[in-house]
Each structure stands twice: as C-alpha cells, then as structure tokens.
From TrEMBL:
Essential cofactor(s): Mg(2+); [4Fe-4S] cluster
Species of the source: Mediterraneibacter butyricigenes
Gene that encodes the chain: purF
Reaction(s) the record says it catalyses: 5-phospho-beta-D-ribosylamine + L-glutamate + diphosphate = 5-phospho-alpha-D-ribose 1-diphosphate + L-glutamine + H2O
Lineage: Bacteria, Bacillati, Bacillota, Clostridia, Lachnospirales
Designated name of the protein: Amidophosphoribosyltransferase
Amino-acid positions noted as binding [4Fe-4S] cluster in the UniProt annotation, renumbered to this chain: C258, C404, C453, C456
Keyword Iron: yes
Entry note: cofactor: Binds 1 Mg(2+) ion per subunit.
Length: 477
C-alpha cells in the first residue's frame, strides 16, 4: 500500500478556472491567486497560474504544482509571475491521474505564439479526438482531455485570423462539458459549452476584467459581477474592449446546467445563471421537510453543503436548527493516512460531533448526497455514539443511479449504493431510523425555469454518452 492514499469523504469536486486581464498593464498574478483561493473547494489536487505581458515580449511565465494554492505559491513565487494577462486553475482529477504534468493551465508554444488554457469539465469524445490527433503527429504530454482541446485550438488557429475563431472551430469538434479560459499573446478568451453544463462568469474591477467558475471568486478580488457567460457563448477581452460570439448557442430548451452545482459543488455565496446557491439549497431543505416530515428535537446539517438545506428543513418543519459538527478546515481531499491498525476513521479526522448538542435528542440529519454509503453510515454512528437517540437522514439530492460523464466524480453503477438497493435497504445499511431523498420532480423548484442536467439521477443525458468509464480509458493511454 502506498504511504499516501486518498481518503474518500464524499463526491469529487470538479475544477475551477480563473482569468484576469489588466488593460492598463498591471501585474495580475496576485489577483489570480486570490481568485483561485476562493475556488479551492472545486479542486485541491493541483493548481497553477500562467501569465503573459501583452505589452512586452509576450513570454508566458508559469508555475504549477500538486497540492493546494497555499502549498504551491508564496509571495516570492507570485512576484516572479510578471504579466497583465493571467490564467489560473485548481484541479480535482476526473479524467487523468493526479500527476504533476496533468496540472493546469496547459501552455502550448506553436507557430502563432503561445496559448495557455484552463479547462473545467470532461469531453465525451476525448478518446477518439486524441487518437485522431495522434495519427496526424500530435505528441501528448498528459493524460487529460484538456490537452486535446489545447491542441485543437492551436491547430485551428493556423487556419483563421483570430484566436476566438480558433476556439469556436474547436468547439465544433468537441462534445461534452467545458468552461474554458484561454490566453493568447494579446487577448483573454472565455468559452462555455452550449449546454451550459459548466458555469463561467465575468467580473470587472477598474480596467481589469475577470473570468471565473463562480461569482464568489469575482467578489474575492474586489471586482463587480458583470454577468454569466451564456451557454455556447465565446467572449473575448483585448485592449480594445470586450466582444461576444453567440453563434454556437443552442435553444434554451436544450440547455442543461449541472444541477449538482446548486446542490453541492458551488460555494454557498455564489450566484450561477441568476440563481443564488444559498436560495436553491434553502428551497431543497424546505421541500424535504414537506415530503418527509418526522417528529424530532433538532435539525442539523453535514458541513458544508448540507447546512443551508438543514436550515430550510428547520424553517419549514418548525424543528429547531442546531450545529452538531465541528469541521476541521485544514483537511483536504487527500492527506496522509496513518499506517497503524487502529487508525482513526477518515470521517473523524474531518468531522467531530459536538456531544452536548445531540445528547438525548432525536436528530434530523441533512446531507447533500449518498454515494457509496460509507461516509453517511460513519456519521450516523458518531451521532448515536454521542448520545443521539434517533437519526433521521434527509438527502437534498435524489438517489444516484447513473454515472456522470461531464466532470463530476460520480462513480460507476456498481459503486453507487442506490443502484442496487432500495431506499429502505439503504436506510438499514447506514443505520438510520428513517431516510428520505429529494424527489426528482422537486429539483426544478430549486432553479426555476432554466434547463438543467439531472442525468446522474434519471439517466436522461443531454447528449450521447460513451460506454464505460472515460477516466479509466485515459489511464490506459
């Protein structure tokens, strides 16, 4: 067994992208750093920043590494990154292993200059595109589908006059989920897949423009939120201003934003496509209270994404809300697992129950999801050991029945507990006194009329998906 072993404490995050372009020529590395820091929840395995000076030699300077932002960058490293155009990325691996070379942004030198690209999402046709490119001479340095996008953009750039047109031509070939931030020698480009599966928004501070996966990162750099990049839209930022290309957009009824952004991924203070994440989770909790009422003394939420849903359940049910858990904020998704036989549960390392709060009480425990069931079972065990007389579990998402192919680390069917067990069976397996999942029909109440993707619950994918596990196929390359 390797000394370092990933401990799963829930779903895998996606990735976070951030871009900054100071039209006055000021350095942007520190802004990119703080933007990525605000997006750290989206990926903690690797990170990177690439900058260029659009007024100087246009040489790209970059720094990437494994680990969190605070581990990879310090003030000295940031001071070396001189440039007024920057692209940043935080990564959680879904396709491609956790390796130094897989860290982003990817930087490609080619005949037209240098491209830096940061990508959040997964392509469903990455394997076939990669093989096609390889047979025409491309040599790949990574095992991530983002490199496929980078190669396509670079190749298309040879045939068109503008970098944003190269991005558009690449978008015509790639299928799947993506939010892209691209820097060319003189411009910053943002692009979002036509379904809107991955979020991307625009911010502005004085004469500096920003692109970010979430609005919380725009706020973190003291900028004003301007708007979301529309599904299928390409936005370009140059010293002359901002342009938009909407020719890749599809009809609104086909758009399919990831519903799990609102349930779990996004930070509570973010706003995506006009919907406050806080509000969406509050609505989910209220819906759970209506669908699954129970006599109890206290409603508690599992940090972090279960907290607001628990508040919604409390408001609707009239049962008091309490804080039952202390979360160790210094534990990421990957950490050293002690080798001794009596090692502590990974859940106990991340969460501890406040015994005084739960002792002698009937508890409603609200969480965002159940994947394999082991984490939830451990938390219930901890609550009962601390003196809770009953634990009624309420989940603010429907049961996971199908894998995700678009960048969410939902595992294959055989690892999804709900795929092969009924709700009652799961209730008994995790040791709960009752169990209620969010109803699929209630998801629309969270986000209103906009189109969203709920394929991991329903199997209704917005596009054709491949057979098998994309990430495993990449690992074999």
């Amino acid at each position: 067994m390797s000394e370092f072993e990933r401990i799963e404490t829930g779903l895998g995050e996606e990735c976070g992208v951030f871009g900054a372009y100071d039209m006055d020529g000021g350095d942007v590395a520190s802004s990119v750093y703080y933007g990525l820091f605000a997006l750290q929840h989206r990926g903690q395995e690797s990170c990177g920043i690439a900058v260029t000076d659009t007024y100087g030699k246009r040489k790209v300077l970059q720094k990437k590494g494994l680990g969190q932002i605070k581990d990879v960058f310090d003030e000295e490293e940031l001071d070396k990154l001189k440039g007024n155009l920057g692209v940043g990325h935080v990564r959680y691996s879904t396709a491609g292993a956790t390796r130094q070379e897989n860290a982003q942004p990817l930087v490609i030198n080619y005949v037209k200059g240098t491209l830096a690209i940061a990508h959040n999402g997964n392509l469903v046709n990455a394997i076939e595109l990669r093989e096609e490119l390889a047979y025409t001479g491309a040599i790949f340095q990574t095992t991530i589908d983002s490199e496929v996008i980078a190669y396509l953009v670079a190749r298309e750039r040879l045939n068109v006059g503008k970098a944003e047109d190269a991005v558009k031509n690449a978008m015509k070939k790639i299928k799947g989920a993506y939010a892209l931030v691209v820097s060319s020698p003189r411009k910053m480009i943002g692009a979002r897949d036509p379904f809107g599966l991955k979020p991307l928004c625009i911010g502005k501070r004085d004469n500096t423009y920003f692109l970010a996966s979430e609005s919380c990162a725009i706020a973190a750099v003291g900028a004003e939120f301007v708007r979301d990049v529309l599904p299928g839209e390409i936005v370009s930022f140059t010293k002359h201003g901002v342009t938009s290309d909407k020719s890749m957009m599809i009809s609104p009824d086909k758009q399919a934003r990831c519903i799990f952004e609102y349930i779990y991924f996004a930070r509570t203070d973010s706003r995506i496509d006009g919907v406050d994440v806080y509000h969406a989770r509050l609505v989910a909790g209220k819906a759970l209270a209506k669908s699954y009422p129970v006599e109890a003394d206290l409603v508690v939420g599992v940090p972090d994404s279960g907290l607001v849903a628990a508040m919604g359940y409390s408001e609707e049910s009239g049962i008091p809300y309490g804080m039952a858990f202390h979360k160790n904020s210094y534990v990421g998704r990957t950490f050293i697992k002690p080798r001794q036989k009596d090692r502590e549960s990974s859940v106990k390392i991340k969460l501890n129950v406040i015994s005084e709060v739960v002792k002698g009480k009937r508890i409603v425990m609200v969480d965002d999801s159940i994947v394999r069931g082991t984490t939830c079972a451990n938390i219930i065990k901890m609550l009962k050991k601390a003196g809770a007389t009953e634990v009624h579990v309420r989940i603010s998402s429907p049961p996971f029945l199908h894998p995700c192919y678009f960048g969410t680390d939902v595992p294959s069917n055989d690892q999804l507990i709900a795929h092969s067990h009924t709700t009652q069976e799961i209730c008994e397996m995790i040791g709960a006194d009752s169990l209620g999942y969010m109803e699929v029909s209630k998801l629309k109440d969270m986000v209103g009329d906009m189109g969203f993707c709920d394929a991991c619950f329903t199997g209704n994918y917005p596009m054709e998906v491949p057979d098998g596990d994309i990430s495993m196929a990449f690992e074999e390359l």
